[in-house]
Amino acid sequence: MNTASSAQLEAIVFLDHFADLPDPRQLAKVIYPLNEVLLVSLLGVLAGAETFTDIARFGEKKLDLLRRFLPFANGAPAHDRLGEIFAALDSGQFQRCFVAWVSALTGLNAEVIAIDGKTSRRSGSKVAGVDPIHMVSAFAAGRRLVLGQVKVEAKSNEIIAIPHLLDLLVLEGATITIDAIGCQRDIARKIIDKKGEYVLALKGNQGTLQEDVELFAAEQKAKDFKETKVSRSKDVNGDHGRIETRKTTVFHDIDWLCQRHQWPGLQAVIMVESEREIAGKTQRETRFYLTSSTAQADKLADCVRSHWAIENSLHWVLDMVFRDDERRIRSGNAATNFVTLCHIAQNLLRQSKGKDSMRLKRKTAAWDDEFLLALITP
User: Fold this and answer.
1) Could you tell me the residue range of the domain that residue 282 belongs to?
2) Considering the entire predicted model, what is its pTM?
3) In this structure, are residues 159 and 362 in contact, taking their beta carbons and an 8 Å threshold?
4) Could you give the CA distance from residue 320 to residue 322 in angstroms, rounded to a whole number?
């Protein structure tokens, strides 16, 4: 089979996962089929497009390439038509199609999955009374792939959104890490019911529980942990004049805490004591986590550290490579759907071979058609 027919076959396989996505347009008036719209948009974003105007220009200049996949009998859509279509697409359905595609792509399990939210700051407008969108995403920390996302109206609504996101995912064998806003009994119960494990940051939103944990940890530390069962680990990292030491202590003997607070699936409490030396100054911080895992300190310390991959490898990349905070797309569901499109592109770029940065891979996709095709033909 030649390169063109092979690429065409793989493109159709990719689009199959979005075949059930409802098209909100009157079918009798459809000039640009939805699969063509999705294909030109994805390839455009992979090649550096950051707006619908960019995608339209990509489609205009790369029409011969696009026709290696699909007919594009009426050419590629203009930017205003693209905006209208993405504004009308059901964002929830689009996200579910995305999750199905990722599941088929990765078969992911036994992975640390970090859950966190990010606001696309310029997707809102004070003048128009439109709030910026806030997306809660699930991120496979080890493979640095986005597994799914759910839109919420504001950061305070993450508590409501997280269970919906968990419903979309296969959690069996995975460890779910969430910051303090997700430290809720219902969320812990859902993770356990779906046969996953959790590591949840504990802060002031669980008042008496946090107080009991802090008091217990302080008492046991003062006694050099001789009256309780613990496992411990330590790691030291340094770069750019910063030295950070992290000591992780896991309290495994917490039956009294479980009886007092009835927290679903609780098996241990994690204490992470960090000390940072920067420019001759020392900063100290102690953080606590609840976990349903029976693992030892070294593994749980890795889980805690892995959570921050979502900041460095997802949120930072969205801002610095895909210019998420600069994008002024506000009509209907367009902003939400464009973020999902960027998540698809990011996953494909992550999966590609080579050690080039994400930024350079996007530029190469714009310059080299064969590299662009390789991104969607694994």
Assistant:
1) 101-315
2) 0.85
3) no
4) 6
